[in-house]
Write a structure and sequence with these properties.
Helix 5 packs across helix 6. By secondary structure, the chain is an all-alpha fold. About 65% of the residues lie in helices and about 0% in strands. It contains 13 helices and no strands.
């Protein structure tokens, strides 16, 4: 959610103050969440991190990178065996398939080197913009912005993005953040998202960015897919419809009962008339 009345100059001043406070809490260098000694190890660790905690990935890669010492070893490995090795990270069928195919592509097409541009990186099996930008920034120190679920959510809340789409958020941040902040924006925001600015029930009252955040009193939810926002907004009307439906059904039932009662009365009257006629005869 952008702040409509905020000028470009005011936004830059606010961004610099946000980054100053983030640096004060987390340092002025990108933090390391995934342990890796080189580019291909970080690449594979990031592939494994999809829908999995960094702690779990680090536990798995500690043994994995000892067993498979280089890209050629991954390219030549038995797929089923690799699946067993990474089973605990989840989605191991796709991850193993992508890692083996990625290793083969790196060996055959890039001479065992991880490319240094986003187009080539995203052309590798299992590699999207998030993973590609992580390699560019953390390994090659090329300014790039990694957008994961925390960055998407919090950047929207801070008024520096206005979309649930990660790619759109990436380019919006490139426009609003000074390039010097691009690489460490991701790790700083992840740390903030895991502690204070959580998806549900963010701790705005404890947040050191509260006075700089336009969403501290109300979450704009622009980081959610539109369908999810509509679903949230329709909860109360849905309840109202349910009440209205019950009222209509109640009226119908009352009308039906009244009709039955009338019919019963008519039958009773008819029966009395018949009986009186017989007595008279």
């Amino acid at each position: 959610m952008f702040i409509r009345s905020e000028s470009k100059k005011k936004r830059e001043m606010r961004v610099r103050e946000i980054m100053k406070r983030l640096d004060a809490h987390y340092g002025d260098r990108p933090m390391i969440f995934l342990e890796a000694k080189n580019a291909w190890q970080l690449l594979f660790a990031t592939i494994l991190s999809a829908q999995c905690t960094d702690a779990r990935v680090n536990m798995v890669t500690e043994k994995l990178f000892v067993k498979y010492k280089n890209l050629q070893a991954f390219a030549d490995c038995d797929l089923k065996e690799l699946e067993e090795d990474i089973h605990s990270t989840g989605f191991y069928h796709n991850k193993a398939k992508n890692m083996k195919a990625c290793a083969k592509a790196l060996v055959e097409e890039y001479g065992g080197e991880v490319p240094q541009n986003i187009e080539a990186l995203t052309g590798l099996p299992g590699v999207g913009r998030k993973t590609g930008n992580l390699i560019l920034g953390n390994i090659y120190h090329i300014p790039s912005i990694v957008v994961d679920t925390h960055v998407k959510r919090i950047s929207n809340r801070l008024g520096l993005a206005d979309s649930p789409d990660p790619t759109k958020v990436e380019f919006q941040l490139m426009e609003h953040l000074p390039e010097e902040f691009w690489i460490r924006w991701n790790t700083h925001i992840i740390a903030l998202g895991r502690t204070l600015c959580t998806s549900q029930n963010p701790k705005c009252g404890e947040c050191y960015l509260q006075d700089l955040c336009p969403s501290s009193k109300k979450d704009p939810e622009t980081w959610r897919p539109v369908g999810e926002r509509k679903a949230i907004g329709k909860k109360k009307p849905a309840a109202k419809k349910t009440v209205e439906k019950k009222t209509v059904e109640k009226k119908k039932s009352a009308a039906k009962n009244a009709g039955l009662k009338k019919a019963e009365t008519n039958v009773a009257v008819g029966s009395r008339k018949t009986l009186a006629k017989k007595v008279a005869e």
